[in-house]
Design goal:
The longest helix is centred in the N-terminal third of the chain and has 18 residues. This protein has one domain: NagB/RpiA/CoA transferase-like (Rossmann fold, 3-Layer(aba) Sandwich), CATH 3.40.50.10420. The chain has a 7-stranded mixed sheet. Strands 4-5 form a two-stranded antiparallel ribbon. A hairpin with a 5-residue loop joins strand 4 and strand 5. Helix 2 runs parallel beside helix 3. 25% of the residues lie in helices and 23% in strands.
Length: 198
């Protein structure tokens, strides 16, 4: 294992431990605050194509954020893992029919996906982040692969990638790997961090 991989593994373990230690009340309060931050800081409008995620048990709950998007009549999408070996995912419209994947994450059942370039906003789960928009994820690279084209674009880079996290998940510096795709902003329970790409 490389030094970078070992460092990231240790950071993931530390931050995920901090998340698991939160009380239910603290989790609920933070989730509500994040939804208010998004409502106040981002322009949400009807028919906007917005991707969100189904959280793992220790990730920040996005139920209040989902309620906000529904109230604004957004077109809402969720990721679905479509190729585990190559670590590929696509985004499908939210549907009443949901099923857990092999990782236990709920995914929409449907046949028609949307190309990632047609999304307007993507709310991204985070394990850790720094003030440059560098994101520490779970390590599988699904989001980095889905939005890899952004690393080579000099002008329009859509969609806007917004990380969702507790404020304590911020790290002084995350060393970039060649495949990393930076976030445009991070919404936390303490406000929004606008990143250089945003």
């Amino acid at each position: 294992m490389s030094n970078l991989s070992a460092e990231r593994k240790a950071l993931r373990a530390k931050i995920r431990g901090q998340r698991r230690a939160l009380s239910r009340q603290a989790r609920e309060l933070a989730a509500a605050r994040v939804a208010r931050v998004v409502a106040n800081e981002f322009h949400i409008y009807p028919r906007q194509r917005v991707a969100i995620y189904s959280p793992l048990p220790d990730e920040l709950n996005v139920a209040p954020l989902l309620e906000l998007l529904v109230a604004h009549r957004c077109d809402i999408y969720l990721p679905r893992l479509v190729d585990l070996r190559r670590r590929r995912m696509r985004f499908f419209p939210v549907s009443r029919a949901m099923r857990p994947n092999r990782l236990g994450i709920l995914e929409p059942v449907g046949a028609v996906s949307i190309g990632v370039r047609w999304l307007d906003l993507v709310f991204v789960p985070i394990v850790g982040f720094d003030n440059t928009g560098m994101r520490l994820g779970m390590g599988a690279g699904y989001y980095d692969r889905a939005f890899a084209y952004r690393r080579s674009r000099q002008t329009w880079r859509g969609p806007r990638l917004i990380g969702i996290a507790y404020a304590f998940q911020q790290i002084d510096r995350i060393e970039a790997a060649a495949h990393d795709v930076r976030l445009d902003a991070i919404a936390t329970d303490e406000g929004v961090l606008q990143c250089p790409t945003g």
